[in-house]
Each structure stands twice: as structure tokens, then as C-alpha cells.
Amino acid sequence: MLRVDDLKKAFQTSASQLVLFENLSFQVAQGEMLAIVGESGAGKSTLLHILGALDRASAGDVYFADLRLSKLSENDAADFRNREIGFVWQFHYLLPEFTALENVGMPLLLRGRSWRDVEPEAARWLGEVGLAQRSHHRSGELSGGEQQRVALARALITQPKLLLADEPTGDLDARTANSVFELISRLHREYQLTSLIATHNFAFARRCHRVLRLHGGSINEVAPESLIG
Questions:
Q1: Is residue 3 part of a domain?
Q2: Going by C-beta distance under 8 Å and a sequence separation of 6 or more, which residues neighbour residue 216?
């Protein structure tokens, strides 16, 4: 599903070049749930941005099946993201002026589909995340956990092949975080997703198929059961 070859990301400062990471190489098989762990500032978010064609690497390549992401134009990259990738972030980024139902349906509306066509699908996905009764509430009327569930439904309404989640439970209390992670795990299984989850939560990372640790500009695979904390 995903192949990363000798990936490097560097930022040019006024005095020198800051290398965030380099020589990253790994593969993700279809159907895997993979955790990426590491300290704040290690580059987890930047790596997910590159894997999702939101950012470009300084060197190296990312292949989605046989598609080389670095060769995509800006328009092609946007189309690729809309078709193939579902994103969930630590902050939900719901549009406050729209209802939960409208937020979920937004990716399909951006494809040019009519609301009459999109509304039943958006309603079905709200049902999938347990929020059928909250469909006409705006984001400010929802709890943090409910907002993140809406964001997950929005990410999956396009039926992506790859789910990228960046600290999806980071802003939630322990009980709510666990329920959201359980929901992600269930939808991963039921919809045969391939999922990459950046997380500080080792308890969640241990429940993934594989774990990659990003540290000191390098990435290494570690056994999930070895994570302590």
C-alpha cells in the first residue's frame, strides 16, 4: 500500500539547514494499523503530511501503490487526497457555521455532488460514529469527543484506502480518548482500511499491528509490547 524510500525533510534557517529527519525507509502493507511514536518535535506530523501529499520531502520518495507522490502536480495531489486519503487531526477543524451533518458531507460536496445526493451518505456515516441524533447540531454544541467523531466520519465518507490520524485522541480525557480509539479500530477493521496513527499514547500504540519510533531524525521499528508508559 505504501512505500517510503530514503525520505528526508530539512528546513532552511537564516544560518543553516535544520534536518528534521533523513534516510527514512519503511513499508506499510494493506490492512495494517501502524503507530508512529516519538517525542514532540520529532517530526511525526510532518511525516504524515508528506505521506498524505500535503507537504513535499526534501529528498527521497513516497509511493502509494505504484503512484510516486513527488511527481504529482498541486492539482493532482489535491485530487489524490480527496480520493485516497482520510485525515483526522488532534484538533477536529470542523467548520463552525455548519451542522455536524454538513461537515461530514463537505468532502463529497467539494467533488461537485449535490446536497440531495450527499445528505443520505453523511447521515449514514454519522450513524456509524454513533451521532445520528446530533446531526443538526453545530460543532460548538458538541463535546470534544463528539467533535472528533464527526471529524472521523468526515474523513471516511470518501471511502479512502488510507487513514492518517495525527494525535486523534490528544485533546480528550482518558475515557473519551479510549472510546474514540476503539471507534477508529472498529472502523479500520470493518472498512478494511490501512491506518497510520501518530500518538503519544503508548497504550493505544501497543494495540496496533506495528510500531515505528521516530527519534533523532531516524525511524526504527519496535515491538508494540516493548512500549512502557
A1: no
A2: none
Residue 98 lies in a domain: yes
For residue 178, give the C-alpha cell: 479510549
- Over the stretch 168-198, which tens digit does the pLDDT of each residue have? 888 888 898 899 899 999 999 999 999 999 9
Total of domains in the chain: 1
* 85 three-state secondary structure: strand
Give a yes or no: residue 65 inside a domain.
no
What pLDDT is stored for residue 132 in this prediction?
Answer: 93
Contact of 227 with 50, CB cutoff 8 Å? no
Residues 6+ away with beta carbon under 8 Å from 8:
19, 21, 22, 23, 24, 57, 58, 59, 60
Q: Establish if 204 belongs to a structural domain.
A: yes
> Cα 142 from chain centroid?
21
Query: The domain spanning residue 170 has which CATH number?
Result: 3.40.50.300
* CA distance linking residue 89 with residue 152, whole number of Å: 9
Report the relative pairing of strands 67-68 and 59-64 from DSSP bridges: antiparallel
